[in-house]
């Protein structure tokens, strides 16, 4: 409410610069308000209304304070790239960028050529300071990206399909030939997760401390890495896939399948939350916008589609082109890698209309396996068959970090503190759902139950009476006889009654079926009950 | 081409010397905190659980009396001193901090029924069933200094003998008068051996008396004729008399809103009234399962403590229908008197088992000096708990109290009884002519009449 009052100050009095600033703040306040306030007008309870009004005012104030802090107190500004004259941003080469930017930034443009051990995949810690890389031929390494130090490098001498960091840089998991393993920073093997099987892709849900994996047989596993408990083990039933991505907004795991469908999963249900046909060909890549509302999918039929996850009936945008790998940056840039070519797409006007922003070509013959934006930096890391490379993408990273969320300059003491805090705030797996804003709200009062038999009968009677009362049209000779009219009337009554009877019948059938099912389950001998088809419950 | 990329030099973002504090940067963007609502909910749940874990309200018992504790008085001028009187005529001054007797005031034969201290804390007034009012000099030095010899005995300042036994006494705020209750209400002066004024309205015994903390000349009494009476010393007679269906054992004024008072009733409830409008209670505080024996407001005026014949002590919000907290121990018997300490952080109860017990007013509060960070953490926990208090899981944990079996059963029985009564009323209403029966709210139902 306090915010609203600010906005109605007459524009004539306020000087233009102040006006501009207040407009800018207005936009920012909206972001921090996290949605609309409650409608207090409909409330009957005066006491509650008063309490809520105070609370809303408090929210307004805090949003305003946060907006002001963002406007004035942030230490760094975001990167940008602007073309001048006839120049186009997507024609600008990395070499040209290197001449313009400072020395510190040029250090993040490099190619590591390791032709024998590739293709490489990598993962960053949430702060972007550490990188784990895994070559398919068994090469695993952890690097400190701040001073480009190799912390540990070792060879496991078997296929490595994926690497992923756990909650901090001390532990990482690698999907190897037969099982995934957990290593610590020194390269000591801590765990072999045999239950997961031959895993193709790994993902870590850092709020829940869950390690999610999809294996060769299309089985999805969730394991709690704090207690070691297996939370969920589900057959997807849609074949082998190596397209897997976690939606950071709600922790839902999305899988892309060879049939062109994308399915979304949570650890507490055996059936997917959502299945949708996105492409006519197999799905080759999948990525989520950090705000969780946009999903990008790439199909083998040379199409990249953007979807709004709040409104799934049609795609937002359809882009022509292949993509072996997709990734969204913190600021919403979309990178796609195919062959030896990387393209960055951006929505300049934030209307969710992506167009090309930058591009980068590797040497001919390199096969790009993975693109990954480094958090809190304007850097894109590319894993390919000849090693890995890193290029500069101005404007991709969040310029300001929060020390309590992800700190690139974290000391070991802070890391220890953070570990304890994040374990205290560990979310139970039930909090993963498509709409996480539902958490912390009270269920609305239940709708009225099904109408009782008497009510239904009364309804039917009323419908019949209404039909009986209608006057019949005067028909031509022969069809206007009283007997014909009586028949006609009877027919009308039957027609009015039919939908009610049909509904009643279907309900009865349903009930009977349910009864039969229960009895069937009971009938099966104990030893065979585990083979009974489990009903999928969403 | 104009280009800028993020580049952070380590010097700008880390501390200069190892002695400095680590630098902290904040970014409140909701996008970098995923699932913040779920995290907050988990924190609220953890806060509720922590509160339960740390709920250890009982600090200690003060034993020394040889008979049931019948009355207590707090010293308005000294935080850690409390007076208690027992059924065998023993009066003691306790040091709350060390939970030891500072001194005794011998003299009464028969039960001590009333104790009151003057506002400056120098004079203690006691009265009892031996028909004598005694004035005592409070040994202030022994409270402030560390005492070495225990059981110092003290001679009374004055001894005023009267005709009838006394039931209660209370001292005026900012004055040297005090009022005793017994066969009637008598107003006394420090230096006169006979009462200044006497009020008698009806023939029944007056059992409790309390001066108004805001207006020194107003006092309220309760009597065995089930009445609550207001007196004004500037007027010749009583102001208002309210008669309820059951008698009130004790009464207490709200020190922050001195027009309101709460009466502890025999029917297990407490009734809050506005002194200007007595025909309806402002709030009925239900939860006890036996007669409420004593009541005392916290100096903040936001809550009050009650002691009951059902062997429990409860703390209520001043406007809450149900108790916030219940305290009980296996050894605590019928509670006859309760007091809130003058800093609102402790509760003292005196019971039939000859002990005084010291409790924390907030069961899970951390005692001692809090560091600013600790303080902030407690405040945050309180805030998230408050925010999610309506969610079933949090609500269940926060509300749960373990009850002794007899009380649990008695409460269930009371619930069924009231429910049955309500249903009966409802049916009667349904089967009578519309408008012929009206249900009175509980706030009015227990009031018989108001006499001006």
TrEMBL record, chain A:
Keywords: Nucleus, Repeat, WD repeat
InterPro entries: BING4_C_dom (IPR012952), WD40/YVTN_repeat-like_dom_sf (IPR015943), WD40_repeat_dom_sf (IPR036322), WD40_rpt (IPR001680), WDR46/Utp7 (IPR040315)
Bias (Basic and acidic residues): 504-518
Parts of the chain that traverse the membrane: none
Residues covered by the BING4 C-terminal domain: 356-436
Gene name of the encoded protein: LOC107413072
UniProt-annotated stretches for the region Disordered: 466-518
Cellular component annotations (GO), alphabetically ordered: 90S preribosome; small-subunit processome
GO BP, one annotated term: maturation of SSU-rRNA from tricistronic rRNA transcript (SSU-rRNA, 5.8S rRNA, LSU-rRNA)
WD repeat spans: 276-317
Protein name stated in the entry: Probable U3 small nucleolar RNA-associated protein 7
Database matches in Pfam families: BING4CT, WD40
Subcellular location: Nucleus, Nucleolus
From TrEMBL, chain B:
Superkingdom classification of source: Eukaryota
Domain Sof1-like protein, first and last residues per copy: 361-447
One example of a Gene Ontology biological process annotation: protein ubiquitination
PROSITE patterns xrefs: WD_REPEATS_1 (PS00678), WD_REPEATS_2 (PS50082), WD_REPEATS_REGION (PS50294)
Ranges annotated as biased composition (Basic residues): 443-452
GO cellular component: small-subunit processome
Membership in a protein family: Belongs to the WD repeat DCAF13/WDSOF1 family.
Identification of the protein by name: DDB1- and CUL4-associated factor 13
Organism: Ziziphus jujuba
